[in-house]
Specification:
The protein has about 325 residues and is mainly alpha-helical. The chain has 12 helices and no strands. It has helices at about 1-20, 25-50, 50-75, 80-100, 100-105, 115-150, 150-165, 165-190, 195-225, 235-260, 265-285, 290-310.
Length: about 325
């Protein structure tokens, strides 16, 4: 209710700034954000309880469900269709978690977590710092794309990103499975670097194949879909955008592994890079889709290089060197 109240007050200004009509789409965006807040809770519970089958099925179902919703709703409803399509994978994940966690949701509650409140708060603060830095960069990119690009280029970006983000859903499935296994290995004092590297490589390989498929196939698909002809010239850029998304997904798997092992050294480069590229999106005079995509790729690649350097030299200090197994 508070979020909806603030949205009602700020919606006219926000719509004028983003050059979009003041329609119910803005409130759909707020609803999408509120729904998105529940998804990490559901995912974390499924991970902790080992419901990997549910996680995998939900993630695999979410991508085609969103794609189908976008293809059907975006041409008909415009921006409202975009937010409804965005909500579909969230609904899939929440519904899957609710079904799998029925015994937990309706069982007897305990208060054992209170003894762990301090370490939980520390952990949440560090994870939240990285997430907030990434969210700031994402919001700056979204604002710049919508505020600076022409309407056709902006619409083309959002359409292409729906296809490119399939890599995020596939990578997220692997990362969701990686996290609890890395936690268990850390508790036992065992290495999990091999598992991390396997997930990292699988995401890169799968994303590269998806990028190639979109680069070759999306122009053909758009040319045959009613209402998509204006976006055919932009369609080949989907492969490039998918590569940027893939690099981000691979880096995210590294961060998930680091979180599982209570290793937050990655914040030393994630936070500065996020602030740097957020400023770049906000202040560089970039007004073409190609320029925005180059900036997105540069941000993803810079982070990816830092991740690679950290993986090659995972720990420094007493008793550690660049060949330590993590």
């Amino acid at each position: 209710l508070v979020a909806l109240g603030v949205a009602s007050a700020l919606m006219p200004w926000l719509c004028a700034t983003l050059r979009v009509p003041h329609t119910p789409a803005g409130y759909l965006a707020v609803g999408y954000g509120l729904l998105a807040a529940f998804v990490p809770l559901a995912t974390a519970a499924l991970q902790a309880l080992g419901h990997f089958g549910t996680l995998s099925l939900a993630a695999l179902a979410a991508a085609p469900a969103r794609l189908a919703a976008m293809v059907l709703l975006l041409p008909l409803l415009g921006l409202s269709g975009y937010f409804l399509g965005q909500a579909v994978p969230l609904l899939v994940n929440v519904a899957a978690a609710a079904i799998a966690l029925r015994p937990l949701l309706f069982g007897k509650a305990t208060r054992a977590w209170r003894s762990d409140l301090r370490p939980m708060a520390r952990y949440a603060l560090l994870v939240g710092l990285g997430a907030a830095a990434g969210a700031l960069q994402g919001m700056a990119a979204t604002f710049a794309i919508r505020h600076r690009l022409a309407d056709d280029a902006s619409a083309a970006y959002y359409l292409l990103s729906r296809f490119a983000e399939i890599a995020t859903y596939c990578g997220g499935t692997l990362g969701a499975v990686l996290f609890p296994y890395a936690v268990a290995a850390h508790v036992r004092g065992e290495p999990s670097r091999g598992l991390r590297d396997g997930v990292f490589g699988a995401i890169l390989l799968g994303g590269a194949l998806l990028a190639l498929a979109l680069w070759l196939g999306l122009p053909w698909l758009f040319a045959r879909l009613p209402g998509y002809a204006p976006y055919v010239p932009y369609a080949p850029w989907a492969g490039y955008l998918t590569l940027a998304v893939t690099l981000n997904a691979a880096s995210a798997s590294h961060f998930a592994h680091a979180n599982a092992r209570d290793d937050f050294r990655y914040l030393r480069y994630v936070v500065p890079l996020s602030l740097l590229f957020a400023a770049a999106f906000l202040f560089l005079p970039c007004r073409t889709l190609a320029g925005m995509l180059h900036l997105l790729f540069a941000a993803a690649f810079a982070q990816f290089l830092c991740v690679g350097a950290e993986q090659l030299c995972p720990a420094r200090g007493a008793g550690h060197n660049c060949v330590n197994e993590q």
